[in-house]
Amino acid sequence: MNSLYRLVPRVWLSAGKFNQWQIKRCYAQPVKRFYKQTSVLYNDGKYEVTLDQRKLKTPKGAPFTVKSEPLAIAVATEFDCQKEHIERSKMHLSALCFTAIDNPNNHTKIDMVNYLLNYIPTDTVLFQYDDEKDLHELQRNEWDPIIEWFNERYDTKLKKTMDITPPNVSGEDKMKISKYLLSHGEEVLHGFVFAVDTLKSVILAFAAIDQRISVDKAVTLARLEEEYQLKFWGRVEWAHDLSQQELQARLAASVLFVHLNRSEYFKKEKIII
């Protein structure tokens, strides 16, 4: 939840001093639900979402339009599921659509592809350790098969590192991954970026998007070291469980966003000749 800070005077002290201040945290008021029904409209080759009689707009005021009818229905469903207040922080699909439409950072396809390529040398699953036998065995059993799948699927030769030295990613491998990513539209790339940022791993994000592993499994693999440490240090159920569920929700939204923005999920009008 967004919050603001302000200085407010403290209460009078015994010496009559009033020049001391304290910081008070002020939370923004949540937005109340102002509509009763949501629906999806088809207009000029694209789909729009309406809240009662109002057309949905992005934070920048642009009309909300998408090419995919299932995606528009999914966004309308997110708005329809809101209760008394609109919890934007939990509306990941809507946020992804807004980002793709508004493009607040003015990212081009090349910018996003370069961002993903530069992420590979820091990929979570490529950093493994042999200092702790049990952890190393767990990483080898869980992460290595995904690395092998990625190399086979995208014809690359990524290798893990056993220390803090970043793995070497060849120019040839970058070119192959870049070519694959550039074959997608800008909207789809926003979904890839969101998935990678969620998992801190290009390899796991690609595996989830390609449906090689489930969303739950991808999040579990991304949290492998953390879950291993929790066995020794204990688990705060409400905190760690909430974190895991949030990651699953974010990743599920990004995977769905990518698939629903691919052309095979567009509903096209039949032309009668």
What is the H/E order?
EEEEEEHEHHHHHHHHHH
What structural category characterises the helix and strand content?
mainly alpha
Number of strands: 7
Strand order of the largest sheet: 4-5-6
Helix share bin: 40-55%
Low-confidence residue ranges? 1-15, 269-273
End-to-end C-alpha gap: 54 Å
Largest sheet descriptor: 3 strands, antiparallel
* Rg (CA only): 23 Å
Shape: globular
Mean pLDDT: 87
Q: What amount of the residues lies in strands? A: 5-15%
Structure description:
With 273 residues, the chain is mainly alpha-helical. It has eleven helices and seven strands. A three-stranded antiparallel β-sheet has the order 4-5-6. The chain has a two-stranded antiparallel ribbon with strand order 1-2. Strand 4 and strand 5 form a beta hairpin. The radius of gyration is 23 Å and the shape is globular. The N terminus and C terminus are likely disordered.
What is the fold's blueprint, element by element?
Blueprint: E1 3-9, E2 21-27, E3 31-32, E4 38-43, E5 46-51, E6 54-55, H1 69-80, E7 85-86, H2 92-102, H3 109-119, H4 133-142, H5 144-154, H6 171-182, H7 186-199, H8 202-209, H9 215-222, H10 224-233, H11 237-260
Helix pairs in contact: 2-7, 2-11, 3-6, 3-7, 5-8, 7-8, 7-11, 8-9, 9-11
Labels describing this entry:
273 residues; mainly alpha; three-stranded antiparallel sheet; two-stranded antiparallel ribbon; 7 strands; 12% strand; globular; disordered N terminus
Short account of what is shown:
With 273 residues, this protein is mostly helical. Helix content is 48%, strand content 12%. Strand 4 (38-43) and strand 5 (46-51) form a beta hairpin.
